[in-house]
Design brief:
heterodimer, A: alpha/beta, two-stranded antiparallel sheet, about 40% helix, B: 3 strands
Chain lengths: ~220, ~475
């Protein structure tokens, strides 16, 4: 008898518990980016070593691809990327201020990830998702956008998740869309044909204080004309 | 810097250790499991109570860091004095009524395989945890927004630390407080600290589950329970992501484990462990808002189970002893909720909004449907595995113990509580349940595994009736002899 001491039910029960972690971990490894990155790294190291061996033996100058270190891939929603972009702006704004926020990233409509990450890296500065502040932080896809900002290109909107589609449509039509008041702050926005996206009445006099590069800028709001 | 990080953690954990050991009974036989249980509890309790003290420092002496060190030193000395005093006073001893001593479980290849597998997966989990943490040191997005950003506000904000609550909801401060406290010690907001905190809570939960099940049901069961928890990938992922569900799950588990251990004290005055259970219940509330449900569930479940059995006088006495541990931490939570933060978004909608939602039958249907979907998919179907294991291992479930019934009722009330919160949530319902229920259930998962292993029969050797003789409550085993 292979299992002399246990009942068949016990054996099945324990075997199930033994097999299960292999199943779950293999499933996880199939979709995990950490694991796939690690596997890629290991593979590239192995490949590199093989190529080196071949190179030595055959004396050929092979064009070897360097291994990708873990974490080389920086996602646009990676806080490390945000830390790098905003590091110079940090010292320019007093930390006891509440500042406004503008972006062309469109994230404020459904998932305000860009705003959260900006808030995270600039803590303890408090950033409101509106443009009714003396100082306004700009977080844009690229620096070229900053030169295109005029009162005609700045739009405000309430927080409607369904507006993402309209937002994309408008963005395609007009080339640039910036974001208005924060959630539930509807002071200067009225419902329009664009589904709540309107020109902001309070941004007529927006002064660029500094362009920090990589789409990061600091604006000052002057008196409305 | 490493020295200061270690020092700050050691102060917390040592404080927790002296508090924990003072209130736990001695075990007559030296046991690795019991020592591990003490260490795991010390980590959670220590980090928890020092974060409470850190909050008191924030509202009084911030930003005077010398005062923070004095606060911490005072608490450490107080815990040592308590420990010295309790050595003489706490004559309790732990005798586990239902567990076969490990010696009875004759070494078999199957137990060895499971133990080896558990250790391999444990080691693998530690490695994966470290790799993931190096890759994403700031944690998952929810951890960044929910905990690490608050910690940054508490640390970088200095005297302006309260500004954090102008943009955040009312989540309490155990995790951000723990992180910010250590940042104050080292004078820098390095990401190593939240990683270590997440690591400690994740693996303390595994350690606590293994050790408690080992103590109460034997080492083989402890290993299986630990393996099952490690098999639940979402648990490890949540730990690595630094979200708050693992720490709050730790405190749920610790509370239920302490109620079980209290039920197994053979000599001396019962109750010291109830004080510790009160502390861990309070710390669950101090970790996440859902922790308040544990407190309510314990009161309801104990009223249903212990009041009729023990009588009013004894029941109230036990409840008050539990309250000794709970009340100081609850006072901190209440002060925080009433004086520092704004009201919860749930109560913001007013009574009319709440009543309208409660009267809407479609909400019940939607919540039930999504909850069932999430439970089926949870942990790659681990609930089915657990159910199958329970069916295979024991014909008769041993739900004769009051403590087991109590813990099942606590878990049921927690689920009912989650359901009720969903009913009145002002957030879009399907979205809210879809994104949060899996994680809410994860908070309960270590406790569910623990309770399941209290119910299920251990995989003992059938023809060794001496084992069965020592397990007075395992009727089905005795019947086979």
């Amino acid at each position: 008898m292979i299992f002399p001491k246990y009942s068949p039910r016990t054996i099945i029960g324990i075997i199930l518990l033994i097999i299960f972690p292999f199943f779950t971990y293999s499933h996880w490894f199939a979709y995990s980016r950490v694991v796939s990155t690690l596997v890629t790294k290991v593979k590239s190291i192995v490949t590199e070593q093989t190529l080196r061996t071949n190179e030595n033996s055959m004396n050929i100058n092979a064009n070897i691809k360097k291994p990708t270190p873990i974490g080389d891939f920086i996602s646009p929603i990676n806080p490390i990327y945000y830390e790098q972009r905003f590091k110079h702006l940090k010292s320019e704004v007093p930390k006891d201020k509440i500042v406004g926020y503008m972006t062309d990233r469109g994230g404020v409509y459904s998932k305000p990830i860009d705003w959260w990450l900006t808030q995270y890296v600039l803590t303890p500065l408090v950033i409101y998702r509106d443009i009714d502040r003396e100082l306004i932080i700009g977080n844009f896809s690229n620096s070229e956008i900053i030169s295109k900002i005029t009162p005609d290109t700045i739009y405000c909107s309430n927080f409607y998740p369904s507006n993402q589609e309209i937002m994309n449509k408008l963005s395609n039509e007009r080339g640039l869309l910036l974001i208005g008041p924060k959630h539930s702050a509807t002071a200067h926005v009225t419902q329009g044909s664009d589904g709540g996206i309107m020109k902001c009445s309070s941004v007529n006099n927006l002064i660029l204080l500094k362009d920090f590069g990589d789409g990061v800028a600091l604006f000052k709001r002057g008196e409305a004309k | 810097m490493i020295f200061l990080i270690m020092l700050s953690f050691i102060i917390s954990i040592a404080t927790g250790y002296f508090f924990t050991v003072s209130l736990l009974p001695d075990r007559q036989v030296a046991s690795f499991s019991y020592a591990l249980l003490k260490i795991c509890l010390s980590i959670g309790v220590g980090l928890g109570i020092t974060s409470c003290l850190f909050f008191l420092w924030l509202i009084t002496f911030n930003p005077d860091t010398v005062a923070l060190i004095i606060f911490d030193s005072f608490l450490l000395i107080a815990s040592i004095i308590l420990f010295k005093y309790m050595i003489r006073f706490n004559t309790n001893s732990l005798f586990i009524k239902t567990t076969p001593p490990d010696a009875y479980l004759k070494p078999s290849w199957m137990i060895s395989v499971v133990t080896a597998l558990f250790l391999i997966f444990l080691g693998g989990s530690v490695i994966i945890f470290l790799i993931k943490s190096i890759n994403t040191p700031h944690g998952y997005f929810d951890a960044i927004v929910g905990w690490n950003m608050r910690a940054r506000f508490l640390f970088r904000g200095g005297e302006l630390w309260e500004t954090v609550f102008s943009i955040f909801t009312t989540y309490p401060l155990l995790i951000p407080g723990t992180i910010a406290r250590i940042w104050y010690y080292i004078g820098s907001d390095t990401t190593i600290v939240p990683i270590i905190v997440a690591f400690l809570f994740t693996f303390s939960t595994v350690g606590l589950l293994y050790s408690s099940v080992s103590i109460l049901r034997g080492r083989s069961q402890g290993v299986l329970a630990g393996l099952l928890l490690l098999s639940t990938v979402i648990f490890l992922q949540s730990g690595m992501n630094q979200v708050g569900d693992v720490p709050v799950g730790f405190f749920y588990l610790a509370t239920i484990v302490l109620f079980y251990l209290n039920d197994n004290i053979s000599t001396g005055k019962k109750g010291f462990m109830l004080i510790l259970a009160g502390i861990t219940t309070g710390l669950a509330s101090w970790t996440k808002a859902e922790g308040n449900l544990l407190m309510v569930s314990i009161v309801v479940a104990s009223t249903l189970i212990f009041l009729p059995k023990k009588g009013f006088k004894k029941y109230i006495k036990d409840l008050l002893i539990w309250g000794i541990g709970l009340i100081p931490i609850l006072a901190v939570v209440i002060y925080f909720k009433t004086q520092i933060t704004s009201p919860s978004y749930i109560t913001d909608q007013g009574w009319t909004g709440i009543i309208d939602k409660l009267a809407d039958p479609t909400r019940y249907l939607i919540i039930t449907q999504i909850m069932v979907e999430k439970l089926v998919a949870f942990g790659d179907g681990v609930l089915f595995l657990l159910a199958l294991y329970l069916i295979l291992m024991g014909k008769k479930y041993i739900i004769r113990d009051d403590i087991i019934t109590f813990s099942i009722i606590v878990l049921c009330f927690m689920l009912i509580g989650y359901f009720s919160i969903y009913l009145i949530t002002p957030v879009e319902l399907s979205f809210h349940v879809q994104v949060s229920f899996k994680r809410l259930f994860l908070q309960l998962w270590p406790t569910i595994i623990f309770v399941s292993f209290m119910i299920v029969k251990p995989p003992i050797i059938i023809n060794d009736c001496s084992v069965a003789e020592n397990m007075d409550k395992l009727v089905s085993v005795k019947n086979q002899c």
